[in-house]
Design brief:
- By secondary structure, the protein is of the alpha/beta class.
- It folds into 2 domains: 105 residues, NAD(P)-binding Rossmann-like Domain (Rossmann fold, 3-Layer(aba) Sandwich); 178 residues, 3-Layer(aba) Sandwich (Rossmann fold).
- Helices cover 30% and strands 16% of the residues.
- The protein is built from 9 helices and 12 strands.
- The protein has a 7-stranded parallel β-sheet.
- Helix 5 links the parallel strand 6 and strand 7.
- Helix 1 packs across helix 9 and helix 3 packs across helix 5.
- The two termini are 29 Å apart.
């Protein structure tokens, strides 16, 4: 059934990783490097991750674009994108599991004052008197697959959890806000977890006008996209006391430049975009299933809505 022509455009390490996964999981598919193929007009399925802008233009007969991750902003901004061609993305249950575990860790890191005790360990300070837990209320900004999984896991741990989404969502044990209720949502929490997709509407959402509406201070956890945040405004919000700290896995420029003041700020924790990493073997199975659906003219799984941007 799968007599389609396949190609991938991604950073070299990603190309090697996904080529290996296809050989292991779908050995009948020949996955070519899209940047070096001599006949791009013959490619039917094009796999993409952080590809060069304009790289899509030669692929004039492609039938399906596939993002090799949960995000699609890298694809939507390409000048050569044909908006009539369907775009699908990876939705991996293990990705949700690992991201929600990361979020739980970040929440507990803040609640149990781990930054302070780590510092005390190096200074040989025994400060038993300040061991009380912070009373926290957690707000999850963005209730897609990843946000819902994190909200439910945090609620099951006994935390008070609220969530916000542009459209109405009903989630057991979670108080949800929608649409024009953003201000009320922000006042409901003192720990904010950002899981929103990157779209024109969420570009630099985490900036001073947003921080001014928070309960002061609020602890920020961002596992969404780097361009959702304004890093200079995060520094300013920390200085003004709008934020009590920040746990950041994503950045406006990645890798984070060595000269960035985020590295040395005592109230900021940094990880190198590792909150969740797509499992290529699981991803290959989804991609192959969708390619079969494409050939049968069946509904595709995890189809991106171009109007929403995710």
């Amino acid at each position: 059934m799968n007599d389609l022509n396949w190609a991938i455009i991604a950073p070299e390490a990603e190309v090697l990783k996904w080529t290996k996964a296809f050989k292991e999981t779908a050995p009948n598919i020949n996955l070519r490097n899209g940047l070096s193929t001599s006949d791009p007009e013959k490619v039917d399925v094009l796999l993409l991750w952080n590809h060069p802008n304009g790289a899509l233009k030669p692929f004039t007969n492609v039938k399906l674009y596939y993002s090799l991750g949960a995000g699609v902003d890298h694809l939507l901004k390409d000048d050569g994108l044909n908006p009539s061609i369907p775009i699908c993305r990876i939705v991996d249950p293990l990705l949700s599991f690992s991201m929600s575990n990361y979020i739980v860790f970040a929440v507990l890191y803040h609640q149990r004052k781990w930054d302070k005790y780590s510092s005390h360990k190096h200074q040989k300070i025994w400060d038993h008197d300040s061991a009380s837990e912070e009373q926290i209320n957690i707000g999850v900004l963005g209730l897609g697959t990843l946000g819902q999984d994190a909200a439910i896991k945090l609620a099951h741990l006994g935390f008070e959890v609220t969530g916000y989404s542009p459209s109405p969502k009903q989630i057991e044990e979670i108080t949800t806000y929608k649409g024009d209720q953003l201000k009320a949502f922000l006042k409901s929490c003192n720990v904010l977890v950002c899981t929103v997709p990157y779209t024109p509407q969420t570009h630099q959402l985490l900036s001073m006008p947003f921080f001014e509406q928070l309960n002061h201070p609020t602890f920020l956890i961002n596992v969404a996209r780097g361009k959702v945040q304004n890093e200079q405004d995060i520094l300013k919000a920390l200085e003004l006391g709008y934020l009590s700290g920040a746990f950041l896995d994503v950045f406006e420029t990645e890798p984070l430049p060595e000269v960035s003041p985020l590295w040395t700020h005592p109230q900021i924790q940094i990880t190198p975009h590792i909150a969740s990493i797509t499992n290529p073997n699981a991803g290959v199975k989804q991609i192959v299933e969708n390619s079969v659906r494409l050939q049968k003219s069946e509904n595709l799984l995890h189809l991106v809505n171009l109007n929403k941007g995710y």
